[in-house]
């Protein structure tokens, strides 16, 4: 039996077990029948089986309509997740993902140049950051508001430097409206640890 003749249930099962989004798109574009079956399920499959990588892409591109559709299709379950957990990186990459990365001089330690380049690429991809952090870093007020409305945690430390938080970045970049947006979200659901709240308030205007 050819792929074209497989029952819909088996086509969906194959799609759900693909190793990458690239494979899923290739399968979807194979012919009209597969496209008609899989296109409507792309977002749900991405959210359920690929850690909602589409949401990270939508946030980086500031595509609010797409981000909303992904969140409504199941990506909300991963709204506070990173695609790659920084703690799973190798020791070399962890060293390159601290705050010294921006000022790192490869001429001092040439042996670490390859991990440094890889770490920089990971950071640029957004895979080490939560969607909210990316939205704040981009200065997108509307995207930040959307993510907060869907349950994004405004206090979670994030990005390549685990000491950074969305409020820290908003303060450093002078995004005052976003700071107050984050503030309102925190006040609606204050953290249990008073130290977390104290640290958050330290970065308010």
TrEMBL record:
InterPro entries to which the protein is assigned, alphabetical: Ankyrin_rpt (IPR002110), Ankyrin_rpt-contain_sf (IPR036770)
Alphabetical UniProt keywords: ANK repeat, Repeat
A Pfam entry, by short name: Ank_2
ANK repeats: 50-82, 127-159
Record-linked SMART domains: ANK
Superkingdom as given in the UniProt entry: Eukaryota
UniProt-recorded name of the protein: F-box domain-containing protein
Organism: Aspergillus mulundensis
């Amino acid at each position: 039996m050819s792929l074209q003749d497989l029952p819909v249930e088996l086509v969906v099962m194959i799609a759900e077990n693909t190793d990458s989004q690239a494979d899923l798109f290739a399968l979807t574009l194979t012919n009209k029948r597969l496209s008609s079956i899989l296109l409507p399920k792309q977002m749900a499959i991405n959210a359920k089986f690929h850690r909602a990588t589409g949401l990270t892409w939508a946030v980086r591109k500031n595509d609010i309509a797409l981000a909303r559709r992904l969140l409504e299709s199941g990506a909300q379950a991963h709204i506070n997740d990173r695609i790659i957990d920084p703690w799973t990186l190798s020791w070399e990459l962890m060293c390159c993902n601290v705050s010294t990365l921006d000022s790192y001089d490869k001429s001092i330690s040439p042996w670490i140049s390859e991990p440094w380049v890889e770490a920089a690429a990971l950071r640029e991809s957004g895979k080490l950051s939560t969607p909210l952090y990316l939205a704040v870093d981009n200065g997108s007020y509307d995207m930040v508001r959307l993510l907060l409305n869907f349950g994004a945690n405004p206090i979670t430390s994030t990005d390549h430097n685990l000491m950074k938080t969305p409020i820290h970045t908003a303060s450093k970049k002078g995004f005052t409206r976003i700071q107050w947006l984050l503030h309102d979200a925190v006040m609606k659901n204050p953290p249990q640890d008073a130290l977390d709240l104290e640290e958050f308030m330290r970065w308010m205007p």
